[in-house]
Amino acid sequence: MRMGKLCLLLIIGLLAGFTQTEYRSAGELFVSRFFCWHCDTLEYDNCGENFETSGLPTIDCSKMSPPKHLVNVYGAKYSKLNATGCVKTVSTKGTRTIIRRSCFFGNPDKLDLTCLPDEYESIQKYDVCDVCTEHLCNRSSSMISLHAFVVVAVVFIFVL
Fold first, then answer.
1. CA-CA distance, 59 to 47, in Å (whole number)?
2. Which residue of 36, 77, 140, 151 pairs with 86 in a disulfide if CB–CB is 3.0 to 4.6 A?
């Protein structure tokens, strides 16, 4: 009887997770409201590796424009693109590690072309550029997606 309740709770949790996730097909841009965490460790201590959501802002990426430095690099056509995901970047400035979380614009499969720091910053390149394509997915340091969780949960159910 206890195993049945555990499975039922797991299934309800999975269904709740799916209702929170917004999907898109390959090449399609987000057209519905899509949010990402929007912070950096220069302003918020809890935006770093020990990420705590309390007091941190989110941003509606469907209302954001691509960063001007990327428009300058890729041209005016790029300025009309919608966000394609969330991003977490890690860079080093002197002895300080800076972590930023925000909306991502570009092709998540070609990060070398689209995950570039602002040319007006003193940062030459990002040490880490993690991109994910789900609602508020840029919270964890490992960027594990809901899809991976679902696979593990299904395997767990069948093993039990």
1. 14
2. 36
Token look-up 């767990």 returns: 156
Q: How far apart, in whole angstroms, are the C-alpha atoms of residue 142 and residue 113?
A: 22
User: Can you give the length of the chain in residues?
Assistant: 160
Chain centre distance of CA 22 = 13
The whole-angstrom separation of Cα 21 and Cα 124 is 34
Distance CA(52)–CA(42), nearest Å, equals: 15
Q: Count of CB atoms within 10 A of residue 82's CB?
A: 17
User: Strand pairing partners for 102?
Assistant: 87
Residue 57, Cα to own-chain centre: how many angstroms?
14
DSSP label of 101: E
Dump pLDDT digits (tens) for 5-62: 554 554 554 444 443 333 333 333 434 578 999 999 999 999 999 999 999 999 999 8
Whether 69 and 120 have beta carbons less than 8 Å apart is answered as: yes
- What domains are there in the chain, each with its CATH number? 25-159 (2.10.60.10)
- Amino acid identity at 51: F
